[in-house]
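Quick question, first post here. What does this chain look like in 3D?
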Amino acid sequence: MSTEQIVRTTVWSAGPGCHGGCGAKVYVKDGKVVKVEGDEDHPWSQGRLCPRALAMTQYMYHPDRIRYPMKRVGKRGEGKWERISWDEAYDTVEHRLKELRDKYGAESVVFIQGTGRDIGGPITLLMYNYGSPNWLSPLTGIGCYTPRLVAMHATMGDYCVMDASQFLAKRYDDPEWTPPRVIIVWGQNPAAADPDGFYGHWVIDCMKRGSRLIVIDPRTNWIASRAELHLQCRPGTDAAMALGMLNVIINEGLYDKEFVDRWCYGFDELKDRVQQYPPEKASEITWVPKEKIIAAARLYATSKPAAIQWGQTIDMNAEGAVAAQAINHIWAITGNIDVPGGNVIAKSSHGVTPYPFSRTEMINLYGEELFTRLSEKRIGADRYPVIKNFRAWAQPDVFLEQMESGKPYPIKGAWLQTCNFLSCMASDIRRQYEALQRLDFIAFVDLFLNPTSQALGDIFLPAATFAEKQSLRSWWAPLCAIVKATEVDECKSDWEINLELARRLNPRFPYKTVKELFDDRLKGTGKTYDSLVEQGGWEMPPEGPTRPYRRWERGLLRKDGKPGFNTPTAKVELWSTFFEQYGYDPLPFYEEQPESPVSTPELYKEYPLILSTGARTQAFFHSEHRMIPWLRELEPDPNIQINPGTAKDLGIMNGEWVYVENHRGRVKAKAKVTPEVPPWLIMAAHGWWLPETEGAKPNLYGVFEVGINNLMQMGQQGRCGFGGGSQRSVLCRVTRIRD
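> Answer (accepted):
Ran it through. Tokens below.
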């Protein structure tokens, strides 16, 4: 007789692809997953689930999924693979990595991941036990969340998120919580995005409870259409917008004087700086009428509590960390830090760190001596001291230079895990492709072959979906267990793969099983992995340092237990001593994008449209899911959004194929004619490749034909090494394909 069971778990990659946190019910019949639904009892998502999670059965059992280890038997890129055993796979990786370490040093191997999914823990575990300092997100300027993280660290010593009662067990019914009176949604489409440690629909939940919206975004997306004020900011000018709003708030006395006087450092200097950015100047830079800038500043500042929910767009300003610093100052001087309905300080629930974000977390896990020693050799550390002293990332723009030059030491190997480098994150992708070809050994851990693994891989290890693994999640709150529901052939979880290799590469590695590792990470909570599962799989943070509110008053933020913020001055540093010590401007400022109508006017004459990429869709997560039938039906082709007036002028009809081109090249896309974008903007879908086409080179699943990053450039990082990049604002033209 067949049996069916329901396994309650928390969703994180692999599978939906996203930053995770949703509760799911996984229906298993005769050992096979037959359905996935939202878990109405899970506090994160309360029964809601995205199309990607609902399509898990197609993902898990797709005929193209790789279910056993493989090694390359032809030349790189020929698409010739041979099945091998796990023993041979482990032996091969162990031998090749030890060989490179012995000959060139462990730093010669770089450990590369995709975006912030359930991989940061496993990949750093392997990297540090191997002895390499080089953990890499290949996006120029590490332009995804890290610029915002470094800005918040430099200002407050901690990180903030919009308060949607996500730290409270009773959620919206908890009497401690107050809905934000106003929410600024800045550079994000929350309902379609997968924000870092945040569930997009929480903004909508707050709207239902009275929150009013200010939206800063060039597109009139769904959330912008519900806004009281919509500021269609030119891409890359967010710092000018923030400084213009700060000018209004400070000059009109709308800031929280008591909070500023007692808890802020450098207010007078900030006041002087923002005099350079009156609303008239901010309007000239951003293309937003000054009246709207003034109205937005007044509405936010007079509507306490108020919150800001921001997106990855901020990171891709010319100085992304500085743009984030300016926005941070808006919620700081209005006293909206760690108060109900404001921007609350976010810490990993219960102090558990399966995904280490910061230097402090890395040191706690691996020791200060190891971290400090390895940081000396981290790629980019000699050029950017913040790279050495803030987070454990290597600098990706310098990585590309170093692959090509071999200086100050050669790069000889790469371990890529959950990363379709060429389709998704890399700019200058032909240059990156050629540079990576020079490496002696490249291993991939993933679920499907993609342009990057097909082009460059020497060995491929098949990973498991969230429904096939055990893991922990504490990205802010709650503390969650990911529960294994089934197995698919020979696939293994990233934790299992990396733990086995860490054991082989480091004789002193202490753990024999993944569960033993998790129990060690949970020590201090009074829980084990099994006990967390048995109590329902999740728990909100207890009273203490990881639970809001007003922790700066209660001495819960600092190691010394004294009131104040976790900064050298114990205050919110509007004048950043962190930036100052490394020779950077301690105050926020605006810098024009390297390529724009303003900075490159001659180029603008030839390419008169601004190209922005990265618009989120619920169908895909970055470059994933293009082979899943239900999801591809939602978004069948790579597309660009173009304004009706612009399309008419160019003779382009809705649904026609077009070329998008600039001085770096051209790619194909299908025109989606819509008033959602202003006449001067082209919004292009990113992450595209065509799994239905030939995978072997030269086609490589069409990545050079449809990948929008062919038009982007590396080497545009900010002064501190974080932020910048061209994905949100380069120049282009669009022409109809007449064949």
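The chain has a mean pLDDT of 95.
The domain at 86-139+349-458+506-539 is CATH 3.40.50.740 (Rossmann fold).
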